[in-house]
Amino acid sequence: MPELPEVQALTAFLDERVVGHAFASLRVAAISALKTFDPPLPALDGRTIERVARHGKFIDLDAGGVHLVFHLARAGWLRWYDELPATPVKPGKSPLALRVRLDDGSGFDLTEAGTKKSLAVSVVRDPAEVPGIARLGPDPTADDFTLADFAAVLDGRRTQIKGLLRDQSVFAGIGNAYSDEILHAARMSPYALAAKLTPEQVEHLYTAMRATLAEAVAEASGKPPAELKDAKRRALRVHGRTGQSCPVCGSTIRQVIFADSTFQYCPGCQTGGKVLADRVLSRLVK
Ligand SMILES: [Zn+2]
């Protein structure tokens, strides 16, 4: 799943190419991807795109007060064409969800692999009309998101830090991969309870979060969409690396399997050598 750094890079990539251009046509191939009906999709036709913005993992193309907003979800992606194919868009089993044509013949496809479809497209007058955007927490990479703000968010939350970091209503844009990376950089157990962290641990985690995200944003910046996924995979130190050696301490990276997701950590760096059991609750391992 693309997270904040990749979505930021996609936003910048689109911003360079689409601002000042008008939508020529939008064709939906996967009906389930379109989550809104008013304004209708054709309301965008002929409108000039004024800016491209990111909200958490959402991308927002503002065409003079009518917004095309999309979320790539777990298996969605964006493919850019300087010259969009002329083949007709047919609803069916292809990964294509939406094709967007601009006035100069360029454009992009939103695609989604797999059978579980959760890519979401909305046409709204205000991005806050999208429920997922309305409930977003603060952007953890914002210049004005300080250590004090971070501490205030964590304060009193008897929640495991792993779940808290990837909760979009707490921190906008961090997902499963970067929460693993942040906790590894902070040398902190995924099961640590936010409310029990000392001020020193909170500061350490804040610094790790800011550095990990800044590094990933810089790494993704300027890369075309086609290269972003591989670049992300290469740069990850623990996420998706079960069984490999930790680049910091050499321990074998372990994973914890949940019903709908799997995460990785290094026992050497993060849990004092302790191997975390699957599906355990915080009262068992802290
Ligand atoms: Zn390690």
Q: Would you kindly provide a brief summary of this structure?
A:
By secondary structure, this protein is of the alpha+beta class. It has two domains: 4-134, N-terminal domain of MutM-like DNA repair proteins (Alpha-Beta Barrel); 147-270, Orthogonal Bundle (Helicase, Ruva Protein, domain 3).
Describe this structure in words.
- The C terminus is likely disordered.
- β3 and β4 form a beta hairpin.
- The protein has eight helices and ten strands.
- It is 28% helix and 19% strand.
- The protein has a four-stranded antiparallel sheet with strand order 1-6-7-5, with no helix packed on it. Strands 2-3-4-8 form a four-stranded antiparallel sheet, covered by helices on one side. A two-stranded antiparallel sheet has the order 9-10.
- It has 286 residues and is of the alpha+beta class.
- The chain folds into two domains: 131 residues, MutM-like, N-terminal (N-terminal domain of MutM-like DNA repair proteins), CATH 3.20.190.10; 124 residues, Helicase, Ruva Protein, domain 3 (Orthogonal Bundle).
- Zinc ion (ZN) binds next to α8.
- The site of zinc ion has 7 residues, from α8.
Protein topology:
Blueprint: H1 4-18, E1 23-28, E2 51-55, E3 58-63, E4 66-71, E5 76-81, E6 96-102, E7 107-112, E8 120-124, H2 131-134, H3 147-154, H4 161-165, H5 176-185, H6 199-220, H7 225-235, E9 254-257, E10 262-265, H8 267-270
Antiparallel strand pairs: 1-6, 2-3, 3-4, 4-8, 5-7, 6-7, 9-10
The structure holds zinc ion (ZN).
